[in-house]
Amino acid sequence: MGLSLSGTKMAKVSGLRSIMEDIATTTSHTGGDAGWLNLSIGNPALIPEVQNTWQRLTADALADDFTAASCQYGPSRGAPVLVDAIVAEFNARYGWGITAENVVIGPGSQMLCFIAAALFTGPAADGTQQIVLPMTPDYTGYQGLCMHSGGIAGIPPRTEPGQGRSFRYAFDFDALEQRGRMGMMLLSSPSNPTGRSIDSAELARLIGVARRRDVPLIIDHAYGAPFPQIAATATAPPWDEHVINCFTLSKAGLPGERIGFAIGPAHHINAMVSFLSNSALHAPQLAQTVAARALTTGRLQEMAASVISPFYRNRRQTAEKLLAELLPEDMDWRLHSSEGGMFCWLWVNHAWFDDMALYRLLKTKNVFIVPGRHFFVDPLYTAGLLNHGKQCFRISLSADESVIGEGIVRIAEALRELRGAS
User: Which of 276, 283, 384, 415 has the smallest set of CB atoms within 10 Å of its CB?
Assistant: First the structure.
């Protein structure tokens, strides 16, 4: 039996599927003892204080809430205890004045982005409407959100040199304004993979585009404010009738529980609630009660500010030092500037360098990284992008420092071998 057109598209091996396969290799019984150095995984670091806090909160929820939460169905919008906690937190923190009608809880923020893509993009009466990423590179998982071919478009960045080995991407707003077939815009801020945070002027311009085109702007805050604060944010989450803000507890220490939530105008959020009802019924309920306890007690906010944010800021500083010490001095490699964040995004500006060649060679050295091309949208070669999409790669900072250090040593070896073979 053959697959449908959407089935064929969704069954393809994507960048995200490749990452998940690498995770499976390093955690399986056969691969887990093979000495893999996994610098590709997006798991949050195992921070003891964070783990212990979630364990205590879960134990309390199991004792007090298990029957009500896990032994019966719940509302598709989300458990009222968590919805109310979110409303109270964001009204107090940002003065938004939202109600429960502005909130939906989902099984992870990626699923919420998938729902938005299904609602706002795809075949329509006036033609196919696309997901538009205002700047690539961006999270590789976005490319699997649309169930039809050609459903996503990315705007290549402007590349700006920084001091020393650093560089930075900038929005090409002229190219964005000219983009047709726009059904919605979507970006992560702080960005996965670069850690770049959108500033207030850039945000205002993006919201302006969304208003003029009358499309939603979905902002994925998986790494930013108000939690988990893994990377520094240049501006607070915005409230606007054309903005849907997505948040998750994954990077705050609960990736396996799949709890995310979206906040936005009621007419968009209610459509997302209906979609969730028709697909997954609702998000896991026991995890929602745990999250509500974390919010109402203030533990989530405290962990983000005093534990998680300093941990990743220090980890980033350590990684920058190791990269400067260990990568070849006679190569033109550059690191995207960032304050904090879970990843380092590197650009090797040489014609002989290819991200997939590095990925394959590093696997022979028991190291996983993520090829940069997975974070761009085809075609990889454009007048503005040239070969840049194949000259980058991402490494994760959530592994132990010893793993990161040894991984960078092997990356340096691989770079020299690739150059020598050219």
Answer: 384
Bond before 107 cis per omega within 30 degrees? no
Q: 111-115, 141-145, 346-350: which range is least confident on average?
A: 141-145
Tally of CB atoms within 10 A around 299:
16
Distance, CA of 145 to CA of 9 (rounded, Å): 11
Show which of 297, 328, 354 is a domain's final residue.
297
Confirm whether 362 is domain-assigned. Answer: yes
Give the separation between CA 26 and CA 7, rounded to whole angstroms. Answer: 28
- Distance, in Å, from the CA atom of 295 to the CA atom of 92, rounded to the nearest integer, reads 12
In this structure, the answer to whether residues 292 and 310 fall within a common structural domain is no
Is 148 strand, coil or helix? coil
Mode of pairing for the β-strands spanning 217-220 and 243-248: parallel
Kind of pairing between the strands at 182-188 and 130-133: parallel
Shared-domain flag, residues 44 and 77 = no
Residue 127 and residue 245 in one domain: yes
Range(s) of the domain holding residue 155? 73-297
List, for residues 326-354, the tens digit of each pLDDT value.
999 999 999 999 877 899 999 999 999 99
Token pair recorded at residue 172:
């090409």
Find out whether 119 and 274 touch, Cβ atoms under 8 Å.
Answer: no
DSSP of 291-344: HHHHHHTTHHHHHIIIIIHHHHHHHHHHHHHHHHHHS-TTS-EEEE--SB-SEE
Taking phi over 0 as left and psi of -120 to 50 as alpha, with beta for the rest, 164 belongs to left
- The Cα 142–Cα 186 span in angstroms is 8
Q: Are residues 123 and 173 in the same domain?
A: yes
Reduced to 3 states, what is the DSSP secondary structure of residue 263?
strand
What is the reported pTM? 0.93
**Is residue 57 included in any domain, yes or no?**
no
Which distant-in-sequence residues (6+ apart) come within 8 Å of 64 by Cβ? none
Counted residue by residue, the chain has a size of 422
Average pLDDT, the chain: 92
